[in-house]
Amino acid sequence: MARLDGRAVGHEAARVANAVETKPESEASLEFAEDLITFHSRWEPEKFRAALLRYGEMFFEDFAPTIREEWQLPVATVLLNKRIAFMTVPGEAFVEFQINWRDRCPVRDAFLSGLRQWLLRVSPHHPSC
Known about the structure:
Blueprint: H1 2-19, E1 30-40, H2 45-53, H3 57-63, E2 70-80, E3 84-90, H4 95-104, E4 109-116, E5 119-124
């Protein structure tokens, strides 16, 4: 059954890919911006450190030194042809941050990605999400 479903998805993906029509952009552009944004901790640092101790000394030693009240973190935005925006942030942005950015973004197609523990996660905004 899974093989049939996989084949059906593959055939549909191929059909859609073949139907895509590309055209050259008469006013192609690429814009880039990088800023530092202040992010505040969700938790009180001392209470968070105390809670970490419950997980063990090794866990505490790994994570406690990184706990702060706020961080200055770099964010980068790329705008393609004034139509598609990509924003990168370190860590995992809260849904509210993602939606707030998407709502303020001047283009319809906007994607936010966060990097945490070597995993890239892409969070496109879709009304059903």
